[in-house]
Each structure stands twice: as C-alpha cells, then as structure tokens.
Amino acid sequence: MSVKQRLQTIQQHIAEACEKTGRNAADVQIVAVTKYVSIARANEAVKAGIVHLGESRADGFLQKYEAIGKEATWHFIGTLQSRKVKQIIDYVDYIHSLDRLSLAEEIDKRANRTMKCFVQVNVSGEMSKHGLAPEDVFSFIETLSAFSRIEVVGLMTMAPYTDDEATIRRCFRTLRELKERVQEKQYPHAPCTQLSMGMSNDYVIAVEEGATFLRLGTCLVGEEEVE
Ligand SMILES: *Cc1c(COP(=O)(O)O)cnc(C)c1O
C-alpha cells in the first residue's frame, strides 16, 4: 500500500481520537520513522506530505539526510551514543532520547545552536528500556539549565510492548502528568510543552492521552528492508 493511503487511514484514526477527547488534530504531528525502509520510500513519505522524518541510528540518519536534506524536519529518536553526537548534530532538528548527563554535556559542547530535546523517561520501568526513572526527571531537568544549548521541548517515552490497553494508557497518562508538572515550574530552558509518545501499535491511545508527536514506522512506511 502506498504511504499516501496509509497516511489517510492514520489521519482518520487521529481525527477520531481527537474528536473523542476534545483535542485539535492540528496539535498532533506525525514523525515518519524510516529506519526500516529505503531512501525511495522515505522520499515517498515526503511527497505524501510528511514533514517530520525520524531515524534511530546515526548511519541511517546520515544516509537519509544526504538524500533528502532540508525538505524534511529531522528527528533522532533512538538511543544516542555520545561519540555519535558530532556526526549528526548539525543536521538534526529534534533529539528524542536525552536520558543522561554525559549526553547533555556532549550535545552542549558540539551544538552551534539551541537543540530541541525531549527527555526520555522509562515510565514502565522495564529493564530493557532506556530513559530516566520518573522520580529522577525533575532533578535531571534542573541540572540541564547549566547547558545553554539545550532546550527541553518535552518528554518522550515508549510504552511496554503488550496488548493490554490499560497498561499502555497508564504509561502515557503518567508521562503527561509528569510533563504538566515540569511545565508548571516554568523553567526558561524547559518549556516542556510536547509529548513524544505513540508508535504503530499504540498511537490511538497516545493521541487520546495527549501526544503531540507520534513516531510511526511500520504502520506508515512499512518495514521493507533497506538494500
Ligand atoms: C522504531 C521506533 C519507532 C517506530 O516503531 P513502529 O512500531 O514501527 O511504529 C518509534 N520510536 C522509536 C524510539 C523507535 O526506535
């Protein structure tokens, strides 16, 4: 199926979830995660009207960026090793995976402009997941005020991989509540207005719980292999 057709279905689901919860669909951005697919397929997404592209590895990111460039807004969504920061920093618009001080230091050192970052939170507490424990988020964000090139635009999480809707919903809701509490602090360096949450199998719940950036791979561009 074409990206355009898939996008229409997804937009329909987003519209329904917004209708149900009294949200404005214009507040929900779709980041097309192109890590599984070719440059051609990523280009197809841009042609279909997708503005935001996301990659989770530095190599894949650079490959796609070289081919597509400034036509898209670029998101780095995966675990970011500090030594890879300098490779991507000049090209990336949003980093979704800020989860430790050493990474903040490296971003601050290498960036030549303010970097929009999401602080990644491990809400579910699964060992396999990256991100800060919810109780560590406040002190971490306070510490980030020392870095003039880091702006905390929001929080990011990945829900546990499960069919249990209640578990997923609880995870997203906890992230939203955390975001609201950070917002209340009115930190100049951390407006924290955004929520990066929701993937192919749980994005409808994420929209219902307040997501502003969905990270969609499989359901939007498929998972064709990169040659
Ligand atoms: C791969 C990936 C996604 C997209 O996953 P799908 O289930 O294919 O939509 C979203 N977020 C992160 C951090 C990812 O690594």
From TrEMBL:
N6-(pyridoxal phosphate)lysine carried by residues: 35
Keyword match Translocase: no
CDD domains named in the record: PLPDE_III_YBL036c_like
Keywords: Pyridoxal phosphate
InterPro entries named in the record: Ala_racemase_N, PLP-binding_barrel, PyrdxlP_homeostasis
NCBIfam families registered for this protein in UniProt: YggS family pyridoxal phosphate-dependent enzyme
Protein name according to UniProt: Pyridoxal phosphate homeostasis protein
